[in-house]
Amino acid sequence: MDLNADGHLDLLSGSYSRMEGSMAGLFQVLWGRSDGTFKKAAVLNGADDKPLIIPSKNDDDVVESICTRPTAVDWDGDGDLDLVVGNFAGKFYLFLGEGRGRFAPTAHLIKAGDDPLKIKGHHGDPFVVDWDGDGDLDLLSGSDQGGVQWAENTAGPKKTPELKPFRDLIAAPAEVKWECRPEEVTAPAGSTRVWAADVTGDGKLDILVGDNISLISPAKGVSDEEFVRRRKEWQEKMAAARKETDGVEDSEKLKPIMERINKLYEQKKEFMNEDRTGFVWLYVRK
Hints:
Helix content: 10-25%
Shape: globular
Structural class: alpha+beta
């Protein structure tokens, strides 16, 4: 998008960054040049010349301000680009635009009625589009749990959106597979990211869904039979170790459990190869 209205394409991204000793999801921007190249990535500052962040009051609500996913859109219909931002918590915030790439420093929580607008799961990933064709902007999002969710706007064209709670547009799988063998890949996994476009050229918006998964196979010298057995044993040990962490808040008590979990992750390399990747899936609208 042309974020600062200078006629050049700019690139905008969120992040998971450390700032002044605490976790804060900063926004990075690559300002475009006239020759089609980009300047070096820089932190996007607000109108007060300080980095734009979603503030967190304490460590308990830090998930509000990390893993940010921004998109630039004229949210309130005033002609200026605003920032709609997702986060780890699955909620959404708004930074109002002041024109030419400047944004008010205050983050406003987007709501559905009186409650915060929130997806099922974590990692809100906003895609703003008129999904139902009624002239106003709706909000789509993926989730760590998979699937695609839709928050319908009832405000009408060129008005500040009034959103309904999210509902499933594409249902998440009953169980998310974070790893599987290549031949077992039959549908999107978790950590979905969403894009809507008329891919087929029939005048209807289709849905593109990206996911995240690890493709696994036996390590060199490990037979298929041994791989299946050792993987099952490993999964049982990992499930037991993770169960031990339930309700444990004391860091000293957690430390030996986490050390054991980390060792289990290292042991997995002895019998398993992992290729962390993802796929793009197309849902054609009827």
